[in-house]
Design goal:
Elements (H helix, E strand, L loop, with lengths): L5 H9 L19 H16 L7 H16 L6 H13 L8 E3 L11 E5 L4 E6 L10 E5 L2 E2 H8 L7 H12 L2 H6 L8 E7 L5 E7 L12 H5 L7 H4 L2 E2 L17 E6 L4 E6 L10 H15 L3 E5 L12 H10 L4 E5 L6 H13 L3 E5 L7 E4 L2 E4 L5 E5 L2 E4 L26 E2 L4 H6 L3 H12 L12
Parallel strand pairs: 10-11, 11-12, 12-13, 13-18
Antiparallel strand pairs: 1-16, 2-3, 3-4, 3-8, 4-5, 4-6, 6-7, 9-10, 14-17, 15-16
Helix pairs in contact: 2-3, 2-4, 3-4, 11-12
Length: 463
């Protein structure tokens, strides 16, 4: 088995990119055939529920009971109800890596002409079709009369893991009225009514009609979603995000790149950004690692900022030595920025830096997107009729205590242990900071550096 945390990046992008999957669905309220549902449910039981390692005994029994309840209603299940049933099954494992994604040919309903982003302090409209661009930056307070808090509690059983990471995964449902209707949260399958507070403070109500998925641009990961710059095929459909600022914060600059290294001589630091542990043809990760090592060796910064806030995971193998070696690259402080969207290999990368640099490391931001005892690895199984795919995890990690005495232990091979990864400098990424174009994490780091005489650069001599 290769040493990978590939499910992390896959999960983070699966929902974001779901709008690009081709449809083959029946109409909204038309049940698919009961035999098709039963074939899928038999595979869900045998290949996922009975094989997945993340289930506790009680959770496995609950999942088996849930599958049986779906079988008993197979004749009546609409496509949306069946999808929700599959999602509930995976969520019962209560493991961030155990989730579903739509395979080729899978059905998904129409989507809203909006993209939401769920910050800790608000659900915000991050991108919009041409007819709704006055809603950009608006805070959604209710959908069809259900408050955002109520929506979260009703949607919570559809995703496992910790609540802060759930909010990203659950956005898929908020953007699709038909899925909300299957949960009793909207009245109609093709539209929803939003209650909003616009950027100028005005309260508004707007009926939003769903779009065919081929009438909307493909999805994007969270970092890309928050940048004001257009991406991919957005211009083709006239969708936009918030207008890009001339003083865009560093974490949103150059948004199409996964990796960056930037010199910050004013604060005696270098800045490294990782959004994945996979590269692309345009950005091979091995090339970046070589270039980043050379840059740090050449510039010799006193301090280092490692931004992992949107690091959703990937293959940990190529980056293990790099993150282990960062402690030797600088003599001063190392600030590691993490968030609820730091997941899988991103969490392990933060742990490597913490372990190797010890007291010189400060964790900045907010708690990471998973517990430090989690299951990953494995491979997806795909249901033969509906084409929904569920990750069957089989590799255990315990970054605090190790897992040598537990079946399926996988992470111990990397010899990484940390007592915790809680932020030393709390700086959550909020809707308010995003809307004002500020970065609480960098603000906190700069304040700490300037409060530490030995951490900041000496002023240049002036003749």
């Amino acid at each position: 088995m290769s040493r990978r945390l590939g499910a992390g990046g896959w999960l983070l992008l699966a929902f974001a990119c779901a709008s690009a999957i081709a449809t083959r669905a029946p109409a909204a309220d038309e049940p698919a055939s009961a035999p098709a549902h039963r074939r899928d449910l038999a595979v869900l039981r045998s290949d996922y529920v009975l094989q997945g390692k993340a289930f506790s005994p009680d959770a496995r029994r609950a999942a088996l009971d849930h599958v049986a309840s779906l079988e008993a209603r197979a004749e009546a299940l609409t496509p949306a109800e069946f999808l929700v049933g599959v999602a509930r099954t995976a969520a019962l494992a209560d493991n961030g890596h155990d989730s579903w994604h739509p395979g080729d040919g899978a059905w998904l309903p129409k989507r809203a002409p909006l993209r939401f982003f769920w910050f800790p302090d608000a659900l915000v409209v991050a991108r919009a079709a041409p007819q709704h661009q006055d809603l950009l930056g608006a805070r959604v307070t209710a959908i069809d009369g259900h408050t955002v808090g109520e929506l979260f509690e009703r949607l919570r059983p559809l995703s496992g893991g910790i609540d802060d990471y759930r909010r990203w995964n659950l956005t898929l449902y908020l953007e699709r009225a038909e899925l909300l209707r299957a949960l009793g949260l909207t009245r109609l399958p093709d539209r929803m009514t939003l209650s909003l507070v616009l950027q100028d403070g005005t309260e508004a109500t707007r009926e939003i009609e769903m779009l065919p998925r081929d009438a909307a641009p493909h999805g994007a990961g969270p970092g890309r979603l928050l940048s004001g710059a257009p991406y991919g095929n957005e211009p083709q459909f006239g969708w936009t995000g918030m207008p890009a600022r001339t003083d865009e914060p560093l974490y949103l600059q150059d948004p199409d790149r996964l990796f960056r290294v930037v010199d910050l001589p004013a604060i005696g630091a270098s800045y490294l950004r990782f959004r994945s542990h996979y590269g692309t043809d345009a950005e091979p990760i091995e090339d970046f690692l070589r270039a980043a090592r050379a840059r740090l060796a050449d510039t010799k910064p006193e301090n280092l900022i490692v931004d992992l806030r949107f690091d959703g995971g990937g293959n940990i193998d190529p980056t293990v030595a790099f993150f282990n070696d960062l402690a030797a690259a600088v003599p001063g402080r190392i600030y590691v920025i993490v968030s609820r969207l730091t997941f899988s290999a991103g969490i392990v990368a933060a742990a490597f830096v913490q372990q190797s640099a010890g007291d010189r490391v400060l964790i900045v931001g907010e708690p990471v997107g998973d517990r430090l005892h989690f299951w990953s690895e494995g491979k997806p199984i795909c249901l033969p009729e509906s084409k929904y795919c569920i990750q069957v995890t089989d590799g255990l990690w315990d970054l605090v205590n190790g897992c040598a005495q537990e079946p399926g232990c996988y992470g111990d091979a990397f010899r990484v242990r940390v007592p915790e990864l809680d932020p030393d400098l709390a700086a959550p990424m909020t809707a308010s900071s995003w809307l004002t174009g500020t970065d609480p994490a960098m603000t906190a780091i700069e304040a700490h550096l300037w409060s530490c005489k030995s951490c900041r650069p000496e002023p240049a001599d002036v003749d």
